[in-house]
Fold this protein.
Amino acid sequence: MTGMFLAQAPDHLTRAQLLANDPWWLTLIKAVIILLIGPILTILLIVWERKAVGRMQNRPGPNRVGPNGYLQSLADAIKLPFKEQIIPDTADRKVYFLAPVICVVPSLIALSAIPFGPEVSIFGHRTVLQLMELPVGVLVILACSSIGVYGIVLAGWASGSPYPLLGGLRSAAQVISYEIAMGLSIVAVILYSGSMATGDIVNAQAHGWYFYILPVSFVIYAISMVGETNRAPFDLPEAESELVGGFHTEYSSMKFAMFFLAEYVNMVIVSSFAVTLFLGGYLFPFVGADHALNQGWLPLIWFGAKLFLLLFGFIWLRGTLPRLRYDQFMRLGWKVLVPLNLVWILAVTAIRAVNRSGGWGTPSILIAIFVAVVFVIVLSMLLPARVAPDDDYVPITGGGFPLPPLDLEIPDETPRQKAAAKALKKAAKRKPAEVSAVKEEADNGVS
Protein backbone atom coordinates (compact mmCIF):
# COMPACT_ATOMS: atom_id res chain seq x y z
CA MET A 1 0.00 0.00 0.00
CA THR A 2 2.81 2.40 0.93
CA GLY A 3 4.53 1.75 -2.40
CA MET A 4 1.32 2.44 -4.32
CA PHE A 5 0.80 5.70 -2.39
CA LEU A 6 4.34 6.88 -3.12
CA ALA A 7 3.94 5.99 -6.79
CA GLN A 8 0.73 8.01 -7.10
CA ALA A 9 1.86 11.05 -5.08
CA PRO A 10 3.82 12.76 -7.89
CA ASP A 11 0.69 12.76 -10.08
CA HIS A 12 -1.02 15.21 -7.72
CA LEU A 13 1.57 17.97 -7.60
CA THR A 14 0.33 21.55 -7.60
CA ARG A 15 1.38 24.14 -10.20
CA ALA A 16 3.84 25.70 -7.75
CA GLN A 17 5.41 22.30 -6.99
CA LEU A 18 5.77 21.47 -10.69
CA LEU A 19 7.42 24.84 -11.34
CA ALA A 20 9.76 24.33 -8.38
CA ASN A 21 10.93 21.06 -9.93
CA ASP A 22 11.79 22.66 -13.30
CA PRO A 23 15.47 22.28 -14.29
CA TRP A 24 17.43 25.50 -14.85
CA TRP A 25 17.51 25.14 -18.63
CA LEU A 26 13.70 24.80 -18.80
CA THR A 27 13.24 27.91 -16.63
CA LEU A 28 15.66 29.76 -18.91
CA ILE A 29 13.71 28.73 -22.03
CA LYS A 30 10.46 29.92 -20.44
CA ALA A 31 12.04 33.24 -19.42
CA VAL A 32 13.34 33.89 -22.96
CA ILE A 33 9.94 33.07 -24.46
CA ILE A 34 8.20 35.39 -21.97
CA LEU A 35 10.57 38.23 -22.91
CA LEU A 36 9.98 37.63 -26.64
CA ILE A 37 6.17 37.48 -26.45
CA GLY A 38 5.87 41.25 -25.95
CA PRO A 39 8.05 42.47 -28.85
CA ILE A 40 6.68 39.85 -31.28
CA LEU A 41 3.06 40.65 -30.46
CA THR A 42 3.85 44.37 -30.69
CA ILE A 43 5.08 43.99 -34.28
CA LEU A 44 1.94 42.01 -35.10
CA LEU A 45 -0.44 44.37 -33.29
CA ILE A 46 0.83 47.54 -34.93
CA VAL A 47 0.26 46.32 -38.48
CA TRP A 48 -3.03 44.65 -37.47
CA GLU A 49 -4.24 47.90 -35.90
CA ARG A 50 -3.28 49.97 -38.93
CA LYS A 51 -4.99 47.53 -41.30
CA ALA A 52 -8.14 47.22 -39.14
CA VAL A 53 -8.54 50.97 -38.56
CA GLY A 54 -7.91 51.55 -42.27
CA ARG A 55 -10.70 49.11 -43.09
CA MET A 56 -13.03 50.87 -40.63
CA GLN A 57 -12.21 54.22 -42.27
CA ASN A 58 -12.62 52.86 -45.83
CA ARG A 59 -8.92 53.06 -46.79
CA PRO A 60 -6.35 50.35 -47.52
CA GLY A 61 -3.86 50.96 -44.71
CA PRO A 62 -0.23 49.84 -45.14
CA ASN A 63 0.08 47.90 -48.40
CA ARG A 64 3.63 48.49 -49.70
CA VAL A 65 6.14 46.55 -47.58
CA GLY A 66 5.91 42.78 -47.93
CA PRO A 67 2.88 40.76 -49.04
CA ASN A 68 -0.20 42.97 -48.66
CA GLY A 69 1.80 45.32 -46.41
CA TYR A 70 2.15 42.91 -43.47
CA LEU A 71 5.90 43.51 -43.08
CA GLN A 72 5.47 47.25 -42.46
CA SER A 73 5.97 46.93 -38.68
CA LEU A 74 9.12 44.87 -39.19
CA ALA A 75 10.50 47.55 -41.51
CA ASP A 76 9.69 50.24 -38.90
CA ALA A 77 11.41 48.20 -36.18
CA ILE A 78 14.56 48.00 -38.30
CA LYS A 79 14.42 51.67 -39.30
CA LEU A 80 13.90 53.29 -35.88
CA PRO A 81 17.27 52.38 -34.28
CA PHE A 82 19.09 54.04 -37.21
CA LYS A 83 17.21 57.35 -37.09
CA GLU A 84 18.87 60.48 -35.77
CA GLN A 85 18.85 60.87 -32.00
CA ILE A 86 17.84 64.41 -31.00
CA ILE A 87 18.25 65.41 -27.34
CA PRO A 88 16.97 68.82 -26.14
CA ASP A 89 19.53 71.16 -24.55
CA THR A 90 17.24 71.56 -21.54
CA ALA A 91 16.95 67.80 -20.91
CA ASP A 92 18.25 66.06 -17.81
CA ARG A 93 20.26 63.48 -19.75
CA LYS A 94 20.51 60.73 -17.14
CA VAL A 95 16.79 60.67 -16.38
CA TYR A 96 16.01 61.28 -20.06
CA PHE A 97 17.76 58.03 -21.01
CA LEU A 98 16.45 56.06 -18.00
CA ALA A 99 12.72 56.85 -18.47
CA PRO A 100 12.06 54.56 -21.51
CA VAL A 101 13.81 51.67 -19.74
CA ILE A 102 11.58 52.09 -16.67
CA CYS A 103 8.55 51.90 -18.96
CA VAL A 104 9.59 48.74 -20.81
CA VAL A 105 11.20 46.43 -18.24
CA PRO A 106 8.23 46.03 -15.81
CA SER A 107 5.94 45.42 -18.77
CA LEU A 108 8.04 42.48 -19.93
CA ILE A 109 8.23 40.99 -16.42
CA ALA A 110 4.48 40.99 -15.69
CA LEU A 111 3.73 38.17 -18.14
CA SER A 112 5.74 35.74 -16.00
CA ALA A 113 2.83 35.26 -13.57
CA ILE A 114 0.20 34.58 -16.28
CA PRO A 115 -0.84 30.89 -16.66
CA PHE A 116 -0.89 30.15 -20.41
CA GLY A 117 -1.80 26.46 -20.16
CA PRO A 118 -2.13 23.36 -17.96
CA GLU A 119 0.42 20.66 -17.25
CA VAL A 120 2.43 19.52 -20.28
CA SER A 121 5.57 17.51 -20.98
CA ILE A 122 8.60 19.39 -22.40
CA PHE A 123 11.55 17.15 -23.35
CA GLY A 124 10.28 14.54 -20.90
CA HIS A 125 9.86 16.94 -17.96
CA ARG A 126 6.44 17.59 -16.41
CA THR A 127 5.76 21.29 -16.08
CA VAL A 128 3.05 23.92 -16.61
CA LEU A 129 2.93 26.70 -19.20
CA GLN A 130 3.84 29.41 -16.73
CA LEU A 131 7.10 30.90 -15.48
CA MET A 132 6.17 31.39 -11.81
CA GLU A 133 3.16 30.71 -9.59
CA LEU A 134 3.04 32.99 -6.56
CA PRO A 135 0.44 33.13 -3.75
CA VAL A 136 0.08 36.86 -4.56
CA GLY A 137 0.43 36.64 -8.34
CA VAL A 138 -2.47 39.07 -8.87
CA LEU A 139 -0.64 41.77 -6.89
CA VAL A 140 2.59 41.16 -8.83
CA ILE A 141 0.84 41.75 -12.16
CA LEU A 142 -0.90 44.87 -10.84
CA ALA A 143 2.40 46.24 -9.54
CA CYS A 144 4.28 45.60 -12.78
CA SER A 145 1.55 47.15 -14.92
CA SER A 146 1.50 50.33 -12.79
CA ILE A 147 5.27 50.90 -12.37
CA GLY A 148 5.50 52.02 -16.00
CA VAL A 149 3.85 55.34 -15.10
CA TYR A 150 7.06 56.34 -13.32
CA GLY A 151 8.83 56.18 -16.66
CA ILE A 152 6.17 58.37 -18.28
CA VAL A 153 6.34 60.98 -15.49
CA LEU A 154 10.14 61.05 -15.55
CA ALA A 155 10.14 61.33 -19.37
CA GLY A 156 7.86 64.36 -19.18
CA TRP A 157 9.94 66.02 -16.46
CA ALA A 158 13.38 65.21 -17.90
CA SER A 159 12.52 66.61 -21.36
CA GLY A 160 12.65 70.18 -20.03
CA SER A 161 9.65 71.19 -22.12
CA PRO A 162 6.13 72.24 -21.03
CA TYR A 163 4.08 69.88 -23.21
CA PRO A 164 5.86 66.68 -22.12
CA LEU A 165 5.60 67.83 -18.49
CA LEU A 166 1.83 68.30 -18.82
CA GLY A 167 1.56 64.87 -20.47
CA GLY A 168 3.51 63.29 -17.61
CA LEU A 169 1.28 64.94 -14.99
CA ARG A 170 -1.83 63.78 -16.83
CA SER A 171 -0.52 60.25 -16.98
CA ALA A 172 0.23 60.18 -13.24
CA ALA A 173 -3.28 61.35 -12.35
CA GLN A 174 -4.83 59.00 -14.88
CA VAL A 175 -3.01 55.85 -13.78
CA ILE A 176 -3.61 56.52 -10.08
CA SER A 177 -7.32 57.09 -10.69
CA TYR A 178 -7.90 54.01 -12.83
CA GLU A 179 -5.49 51.80 -10.89
CA ILE A 180 -7.84 52.16 -7.90
CA ALA A 181 -10.86 51.15 -9.98
CA MET A 182 -8.96 48.22 -11.50
CA GLY A 183 -7.78 46.98 -8.11
CA LEU A 184 -11.28 47.18 -6.62
CA SER A 185 -12.75 45.26 -9.57
CA ILE A 186 -10.50 42.31 -8.72
CA VAL A 187 -11.71 42.09 -5.10
CA ALA A 188 -14.91 40.25 -6.07
CA VAL A 189 -12.89 37.73 -8.10
CA ILE A 190 -10.64 37.05 -5.11
CA LEU A 191 -13.72 36.60 -2.88
CA TYR A 192 -15.24 34.02 -5.23
CA SER A 193 -12.02 32.12 -6.02
CA GLY A 194 -10.60 32.28 -2.49
CA SER A 195 -7.06 32.86 -3.76
CA MET A 196 -4.77 35.50 -5.24
CA ALA A 197 -2.75 32.94 -7.21
CA THR A 198 -3.51 33.21 -10.92
CA GLY A 199 -3.51 29.43 -11.46
CA ASP A 200 -6.07 28.91 -8.68
CA ILE A 201 -8.31 31.63 -10.14
CA VAL A 202 -8.33 29.85 -13.52
CA ASN A 203 -9.13 26.49 -11.89
CA ALA A 204 -11.97 28.09 -9.92
CA GLN A 205 -13.66 29.00 -13.24
CA ALA A 206 -13.91 25.39 -14.43
CA HIS A 207 -17.69 25.45 -13.82
CA GLY A 208 -18.42 29.07 -14.67
CA TRP A 209 -16.50 32.06 -15.98
CA TYR A 210 -16.51 35.17 -13.84
CA PHE A 211 -17.40 37.57 -16.66
CA TYR A 212 -21.07 36.55 -16.36
CA ILE A 213 -21.00 35.62 -12.66
CA LEU A 214 -19.46 39.03 -11.80
CA PRO A 215 -20.55 41.23 -14.73
CA VAL A 216 -20.07 44.56 -12.94
CA SER A 217 -16.47 43.70 -12.05
CA PHE A 218 -15.77 42.69 -15.65
CA VAL A 219 -17.20 45.91 -17.13
CA ILE A 220 -15.30 48.10 -14.64
CA TYR A 221 -12.07 46.21 -15.31
CA ALA A 222 -12.54 46.53 -19.08
CA ILE A 223 -12.97 50.31 -18.79
CA SER A 224 -10.07 50.62 -16.34
CA MET A 225 -7.66 48.65 -18.49
CA VAL A 226 -8.21 51.08 -21.38
CA GLY A 227 -7.52 54.02 -19.05
CA GLU A 228 -4.54 52.23 -17.52
CA THR A 229 -2.84 51.77 -20.90
CA ASN A 230 -3.47 55.37 -22.10
CA ARG A 231 -5.33 54.12 -25.16
CA ALA A 232 -8.08 55.89 -27.10
CA PRO A 233 -10.55 57.24 -26.09
CA PHE A 234 -8.52 57.73 -22.88
CA ASP A 235 -5.21 58.74 -24.50
CA LEU A 236 -5.05 62.12 -22.74
CA PRO A 237 -1.30 62.02 -21.85
CA GLU A 238 -0.37 62.08 -25.55
CA ALA A 239 -3.25 64.10 -26.98
CA GLU A 240 -1.77 65.46 -30.22
CA SER A 241 -4.44 68.16 -30.57
CA GLU A 242 -3.46 69.65 -27.18
CA LEU A 243 0.07 68.52 -26.25
CA VAL A 244 1.78 67.91 -29.64
CA GLY A 245 2.85 64.39 -28.64
CA GLY A 246 2.53 64.47 -24.88
CA PHE A 247 5.21 62.93 -22.71
CA HIS A 248 7.26 61.59 -25.66
CA THR A 249 7.28 64.81 -27.72
CA GLU A 250 11.05 65.27 -27.29
CA TYR A 251 11.95 61.60 -27.88
CA SER A 252 13.16 60.09 -31.14
CA SER A 253 14.95 57.06 -32.54
CA MET A 254 15.15 53.94 -30.35
CA LYS A 255 13.91 55.67 -27.18
CA PHE A 256 10.64 56.56 -28.89
CA ALA A 257 10.37 52.94 -30.06
CA MET A 258 10.73 51.79 -26.45
CA PHE A 259 7.74 53.91 -25.40
CA PHE A 260 5.80 52.43 -28.31
CA LEU A 261 6.83 48.93 -27.22
CA ALA A 262 5.79 49.58 -23.61
CA GLU A 263 2.31 50.74 -24.69
CA TYR A 264 1.56 47.63 -26.73
CA VAL A 265 3.11 45.23 -24.21
CA ASN A 266 0.90 46.79 -21.52
CA MET A 267 -2.09 46.09 -23.76
CA VAL A 268 -1.04 42.44 -23.91
CA ILE A 269 -0.58 42.32 -20.11
CA VAL A 270 -3.96 43.77 -19.12
CA SER A 271 -5.71 41.66 -21.78
CA SER A 272 -3.99 38.47 -20.57
CA PHE A 273 -4.91 39.43 -17.01
CA ALA A 274 -8.55 39.90 -18.06
CA VAL A 275 -8.54 36.47 -19.74
CA THR A 276 -7.15 34.94 -16.54
CA LEU A 277 -9.56 36.69 -14.18
CA PHE A 278 -12.84 36.72 -16.10
CA LEU A 279 -12.69 34.55 -19.24
CA GLY A 280 -11.59 31.24 -17.75
CA GLY A 281 -7.92 31.59 -18.68
CA TYR A 282 -6.83 28.72 -20.92
CA LEU A 283 -10.02 26.67 -20.30
CA PHE A 284 -12.34 25.81 -23.19
CA PRO A 285 -15.96 26.89 -22.55
CA PHE A 286 -18.81 24.54 -21.57
CA VAL A 287 -16.57 21.56 -20.73
CA GLY A 288 -14.85 20.52 -17.51
CA ALA A 289 -11.18 20.93 -16.67
CA ASP A 290 -10.63 17.17 -17.20
CA HIS A 291 -11.97 17.23 -20.77
CA ALA A 292 -9.59 16.43 -23.63
CA LEU A 293 -9.96 19.99 -24.96
CA ASN A 294 -8.40 21.29 -21.74
CA GLN A 295 -5.42 18.96 -21.74
CA GLY A 296 -1.96 19.23 -23.27
CA TRP A 297 -1.09 22.07 -25.65
CA LEU A 298 -4.62 22.76 -26.94
CA PRO A 299 -5.49 25.25 -24.12
CA LEU A 300 -2.72 27.52 -25.40
CA ILE A 301 -4.86 28.06 -28.52
CA TRP A 302 -7.95 28.93 -26.45
CA PHE A 303 -5.94 31.42 -24.41
CA GLY A 304 -4.59 33.04 -27.58
CA ALA A 305 -8.06 33.32 -29.11
CA LYS A 306 -9.46 35.07 -26.03
CA LEU A 307 -6.42 37.35 -25.87
CA PHE A 308 -6.77 38.47 -29.49
CA LEU A 309 -10.49 39.07 -28.97
CA LEU A 310 -9.71 41.59 -26.21
CA LEU A 311 -6.88 43.15 -28.20
CA PHE A 312 -9.26 43.69 -31.09
CA GLY A 313 -11.48 45.55 -28.62
CA PHE A 314 -8.66 48.10 -28.12
CA ILE A 315 -8.42 48.57 -31.88
CA TRP A 316 -12.18 48.85 -32.26
CA LEU A 317 -12.38 51.57 -29.59
CA ARG A 318 -9.61 53.55 -31.25
CA GLY A 319 -11.37 53.48 -34.61
CA THR A 320 -14.83 54.44 -33.33
CA LEU A 321 -14.82 56.62 -30.19
CA PRO A 322 -13.62 60.25 -29.90
CA ARG A 323 -11.24 61.31 -27.14
CA LEU A 324 -12.87 62.36 -23.86
CA ARG A 325 -12.28 65.76 -22.31
CA TYR A 326 -9.91 65.53 -19.36
CA ASP A 327 -12.41 66.51 -16.65
CA GLN A 328 -14.99 64.08 -18.07
CA PHE A 329 -12.41 61.32 -17.97
CA MET A 330 -11.45 61.98 -14.35
CA ARG A 331 -15.10 62.30 -13.34
CA LEU A 332 -15.80 58.87 -14.82
CA GLY A 333 -13.01 57.34 -12.74
CA TRP A 334 -13.62 58.99 -9.38
CA LYS A 335 -17.38 59.61 -9.34
CA VAL A 336 -18.67 56.59 -11.25
CA LEU A 337 -16.27 53.63 -11.30
CA VAL A 338 -14.89 53.83 -7.74
CA PRO A 339 -18.26 54.32 -5.95
CA LEU A 340 -19.92 51.68 -8.14
CA ASN A 341 -17.09 49.30 -7.32
CA LEU A 342 -17.49 49.82 -3.57
CA VAL A 343 -21.25 49.22 -3.70
CA TRP A 344 -20.70 46.11 -5.84
CA ILE A 345 -18.12 44.68 -3.41
CA LEU A 346 -20.58 45.26 -0.55
CA ALA A 347 -23.34 43.48 -2.47
CA VAL A 348 -21.10 40.53 -3.42
CA THR A 349 -19.93 40.16 0.19
CA ALA A 350 -23.51 40.22 1.48
CA ILE A 351 -24.67 37.62 -1.06
CA ARG A 352 -21.75 35.32 -0.23
CA ALA A 353 -22.43 35.62 3.49
CA VAL A 354 -26.15 34.89 3.07
CA ASN A 355 -25.50 31.87 0.80
CA ARG A 356 -23.06 30.39 3.28
CA SER A 357 -25.51 30.85 6.15
CA GLY A 358 -28.15 28.73 4.44
CA GLY A 359 -29.75 30.79 1.71
CA TRP A 360 -32.32 33.56 1.51
CA GLY A 361 -35.29 33.44 3.81
CA THR A 362 -38.27 35.82 3.97
CA PRO A 363 -36.80 37.87 6.85
CA SER A 364 -33.45 38.19 5.02
CA ILE A 365 -35.16 39.41 1.84
CA LEU A 366 -37.20 41.99 3.76
CA ILE A 367 -34.15 43.23 5.63
CA ALA A 368 -32.18 43.51 2.37
CA ILE A 369 -34.99 45.49 0.70
CA PHE A 370 -35.27 47.77 3.73
CA VAL A 371 -31.51 48.45 3.79
CA ALA A 372 -31.49 49.15 0.03
CA VAL A 373 -34.40 51.61 0.32
CA VAL A 374 -32.79 53.41 3.27
CA PHE A 375 -29.51 53.61 1.35
CA VAL A 376 -31.20 55.15 -1.70
CA ILE A 377 -33.08 57.67 0.47
CA VAL A 378 -29.94 58.73 2.35
CA LEU A 379 -27.99 58.99 -0.89
CA SER A 380 -30.66 61.16 -2.49
CA MET A 381 -30.62 63.46 0.55
CA LEU A 382 -26.85 63.83 0.41
CA LEU A 383 -26.75 64.71 -3.27
CA PRO A 384 -26.72 68.48 -3.88
CA ALA A 385 -29.68 70.05 -5.62
CA ARG A 386 -29.16 70.82 -9.30
CA VAL A 387 -29.11 74.57 -9.91
CA ALA A 388 -29.95 75.88 -13.37
CA PRO A 389 -27.07 78.04 -14.68
CA ASP A 390 -27.59 81.64 -15.66
CA ASP A 391 -27.96 82.52 -19.33
CA ASP A 392 -24.71 84.51 -19.30
CA TYR A 393 -22.79 81.86 -17.39
CA VAL A 394 -19.75 80.38 -19.15
CA PRO A 395 -19.05 76.81 -17.92
CA ILE A 396 -15.53 76.16 -16.67
CA THR A 397 -14.09 72.68 -17.05
CA GLY A 398 -12.29 70.94 -14.21
CA GLY A 399 -12.46 71.81 -10.53
CA GLY A 400 -12.09 69.17 -7.84
CA PHE A 401 -9.91 66.95 -10.03
CA PRO A 402 -6.13 66.54 -10.18
CA LEU A 403 -5.64 68.97 -13.07
CA PRO A 404 -2.28 70.62 -13.78
CA PRO A 405 -2.15 74.10 -12.12
CA LEU A 406 -2.88 77.05 -14.39
CA ASP A 407 0.10 79.00 -12.99
CA LEU A 408 2.57 76.22 -13.74
CA GLU A 409 6.03 77.69 -14.28
CA ILE A 410 8.80 76.00 -16.22
CA PRO A 411 12.36 76.91 -15.11
CA ASP A 412 13.97 79.28 -17.59
CA GLU A 413 17.39 77.68 -17.22
CA THR A 414 18.73 74.26 -16.33
CA PRO A 415 21.69 73.93 -13.93
CA ARG A 416 23.95 73.31 -16.93
CA GLN A 417 22.76 76.50 -18.63
CA LYS A 418 23.32 78.50 -15.42
CA ALA A 419 26.88 77.17 -15.17
CA ALA A 420 27.52 78.05 -18.83
CA ALA A 421 26.17 81.60 -18.33
CA LYS A 422 28.41 82.08 -15.28
CA ALA A 423 31.43 80.94 -17.27
CA LEU A 424 30.57 83.40 -20.06
CA LYS A 425 30.34 86.26 -17.54
CA LYS A 426 33.77 85.42 -16.15
CA ALA A 427 35.17 85.30 -19.67
CA ALA A 428 33.57 88.66 -20.46
CA LYS A 429 35.22 90.24 -17.40
CA ARG A 430 38.65 89.05 -18.52
CA LYS A 431 38.17 90.18 -22.12
CA PRO A 432 38.41 94.04 -21.66
CA ALA A 433 41.78 93.71 -19.89
CA GLU A 434 43.16 91.65 -22.76
CA VAL A 435 41.85 94.16 -25.34
CA SER A 436 43.41 97.16 -23.54
CA ALA A 437 46.80 95.38 -23.35
CA VAL A 438 46.71 94.73 -27.09
CA LYS A 439 45.87 98.41 -27.76
CA GLU A 440 48.80 99.61 -25.64
CA GLU A 441 51.18 97.34 -27.57
CA ALA A 442 49.80 98.66 -30.86
CA ASP A 443 50.22 102.31 -29.73
CA ASN A 444 53.79 101.67 -28.62
CA GLY A 445 54.60 100.13 -31.97
CA VAL A 446 53.18 103.13 -33.85
CA SER A 447 55.07 105.62 -31.75
